[in-house]
Amino acid sequence: MAVTRTLSERRLVIVIGAVVLVDTMFYAAIAPLLPSLARSLHMSKLAAGVMTAGYPAGTLVGSLPGGVLAVRAGPKRTVYAGLALLAVSTLGFGLLNDVAWLDAARFVEGVGGACSWAGGLAWIVAEAPAQRRGGLIGSALGAAIAGSLFGPVVGTVANAVGRAAAFSAVVVLSLALIDQARRLPLEHTASGQGAAELLVSVRERAVRWGMWLMVLPAIVSGLLNVLGALRLHRLGASVPAIGATFLVASALEALTSPGVGRLSDRRGRVVPMRAGLVAVAGLLACFTLPSRALLLAALIVATAVALAAFWAPSMAMLSDAAEATGLDQALAAAVMNLAWAGGQIVGSAAGGAVAKAAGDGVPMAAAAVACGATLLALARSRPRPARGSRSTRWSGTAGRRRRR
Fold first, then answer.
1. How far apart are CA 222 and CA 17, in angstroms?
2. Minimal CA–CA distance to 322: which of 273, 258, 398, 391?
3. What pLDDT was estimated at residue 27?
4. In the 3-class helix/strand/coil scheme, how is the chain assigned residue by residue?
5. CA distances from residue 276 to 247, 261, 265, 272, 279 in whole angstroms, order as listed
6. With helix as H, strand as E and coil as C, how does 64-118 read?
């Protein structure tokens, strides 16, 4: 029975990992396309930031509806909906040539991503024991980050052969994944929960900590996607070189995430995030120093690897807190989407606006200060399990308590 359950978990993680891989692949494809789109469509830094922020804006708007859909209709149907929206919107992004329509396509793609992530994460957590939750989430995240890895490749190919030809494959991929998800078993009982229960859970300090520890790396990621790509271009990097930078960054981040998730299961959720805060703060403070594209590319890669210390532990932290308070895991996934999307919007759109007015160093320095302040706050007040918790491993001393 244990072997059968383990095989079922692995198959589920593979399929959901493939779903989020495809989603993040087409999300990340914009990075190497951004300089050519900015040139051909006469876009400013602000406009480029808005286009990049279109996806997280859609995720933000679609987070709660996606979570409620997963509660009421079940994770499987929610994954179907996310894949269908992804196919339509990404194909539209490949065919359209107007800034407003491209922004709209990115927005719809983000709504689809909210559904895919809400359904997929709720599905994994429903099948995963608490003591392996971080590792399984980390494996799915590794696949998602691998999508970010291939995204710049897709963007580079699209720049060479045309967006329409490169993005048409998403329709075939989405249909294939819907078929694979259909074959997976799922026992789903609707909890009947909604926004009211979600709002009650946010009062828990552990939930708020988990949200912030997703918001912060999302801000940094949004800044890198916009300012990193544009600054590399200004320093003379070609589109293939920009794509290669984000490719290497995503590859190393994908390789790191599963191990970080397993570490958070063993040592506590906060332990890897402390190291990530120190590394990210130092790297962001140095962002404007490199005068050569190669040095800046190395800094971007290092920052992406440091961000891997956040994703799986913070998502597992939110899932743990949801379990402790009785919140449906689909709504916990909606909270994750809200936190990630909010951070991405601040990093890409607001970061682009501030950089246009005051230079790249100002938003990067602000993010570095936020990392430092968070590290100090963690040292002074560790997140503890939500009231009634019996299952989670949060940090150092409290992290030694196991499920009873």
1. 22
2. 391
3. 79
4. CHHHHHHHHHHHHHHHHHHHHHHHHHHHCHHHHHHHHHHHCCCCHHHHHHHHHHHHHHHHHHHHHHHHHHHHCCHHHHHHHHHHHHHHHHHHHHHCCCHHHHHHHHHHHHHHHHHHHHHHHHHHHHHCCHHHHHHHHHHHHHHHHHHHHHHHHHHHHHHHHCHHHHHCHHHHHHHHHHHHHHCCCCCCCCCCCCHHHHHHHCCCHHHHHHHHHHHHHHHHHHHHHHHHHHHHHHCCCCHHHHHHHHHHHHHHHHHHHHHHHHHHHHHCCHHHHHHHHHHHHHHHHCCCCCCCHHHHHHHHHHHHHHHCCCHHHHHHHHHHHHHHHCCCHHHHHHHHHHHHHHHHHHHHHHHHHHHHHHCCHHHHHHHHHHHHHHHHHHHHCCCCCCCCCCCCCCCCCHHHCCCC
5. 20, 13, 17, 6, 5
6. HHHHHHHHHCCHHHHHHHHHHHHHHHHHHHHHCCCHHHHHHHHHHHHHHHHHHHH
pLDDT at 254 over 60: yes
**What one-letter code names the amino acid at 227?**
L
Q: pLDDT tens digits, residue range 71-81? A: 888 888 999 99
The phi, psi pair for 248, rounded to 5°, reads -65, -40
> Percent of the chain scored above 90 by pLDDT?
20
Torsional class of 42: left (φ above 0), alpha (ψ -120 to 50), beta (otherwise) = left
C-beta separation of 397 from 384 below 8 A: no
- Domain 2-397: state its class: mainly alpha
Q: Provide mean pLDDT across the span 150-175.
A: 80
In the chain, domain spans: 2-397
**Which has more confidence, 152 or 97?**
97
d(CA 118, CA 32): 28
pLDDT tens-place string over residues 256-309: 888 888 888 888 888 899 999 999 999 999 999 999 999 999 999 999 899 989
Structure tokens at 120: 């997929």
